[in-house]
Design a protein that fits this description.
By secondary structure, the chain is α+β, with helices and mostly antiparallel strands. The chain has eight helices and nine strands.
């Protein structure tokens, strides 16, 4: 298959997939189409070509490496515009407690509930349960060295997809975080107005919520 055609096929696959596609998956899918093995470097070149195409200002979305693969995502400049599609009643913001808990897990992972509670100074049971329900965090195992072998928590692939990163070490450094607001879609039946919560770095270097 000529490179020009390969690029179009790769673009179509990524566009049609609901989940990020890895380079390995693209190689397999395209090899099924051509019935001959496609070299990885040709797929890599096709991906880079598609990425360069959509990085131009002519398109409102771009090819992004996220969640271990590649996916088309809307550029940040258009986020507020497309949020109107679902309407405010479908949007539910994370509570202050959930935001603080998520922040601790993101930057301290893997971390136990007792460690989270030590940092926050209050119980984290409810916040952890809500974050698990929203699939923003996962149970990553147990701390085999601690008494009682407590569960340990880490951020999920869904959380990384939302932020457009591939690994926790790609999170912004705390000193680089000025403010952040995270809003996730929810079912209309669960939606309820809440005050906007933001995150900022305090004088003590800890990530906190602000009104």
């Amino acid at each position: 298959m000529e490179l020009e055609q390969l690029i179009l096929h790769v673009e179509a696959l990524v566009f049609s997939s609901q989940q990020p596609l890895t380079q390995v998956e693209l190689i397999e899918l395209m090899s099924n189409v051509t019935e001959v093995p496609i070299p990885g470097e040709r797929i890599a070149l096709a991906i880079e070509t598609v990425k360069e195409k959509y990085d131009t200002p002519h398109y409102p979305f771009q090819l992004t490496e996220t969640g271990g693969g590649y996916q088309f995502l809307t550029k940040a400049a258009y986020h507020q515009t497309i949020m109107q599609l679902n309407g405010d009643k479908y949007i539910k913001k994370l509570s202050s407690a959930a935001m603080e808990t998520l922040s601790i897990i993101a930057y301290k992972q893997p971390v136990t509930k007792s460690e989270i509670e030590f940092i926050r100074g209050v119980s984290a049971d409810y916040s952890i349960q809500k974050l698990l329900e929203k699939e923003l965090i996962v149970i990553a195992g147990r701390n085999e060295e601690a008494i009682g072998k407590p569960l340990i928590y880490a951020t999920s692939k869904h959380f990384m997809d939302y932020l457009g990163i591939n690994a926790p070490d790609q999170l912004p450094k705390l000193k680089e975080v000025a403010s952040m607001e995270i809003v996730f879609p929810t079912d209309a039946a669960e939606a309820a107005p809440e005050a906007v919560q933001q995150m900022a770095v305090g004088d003590d270097g800890m990530l906190k919520t602000i009104e």
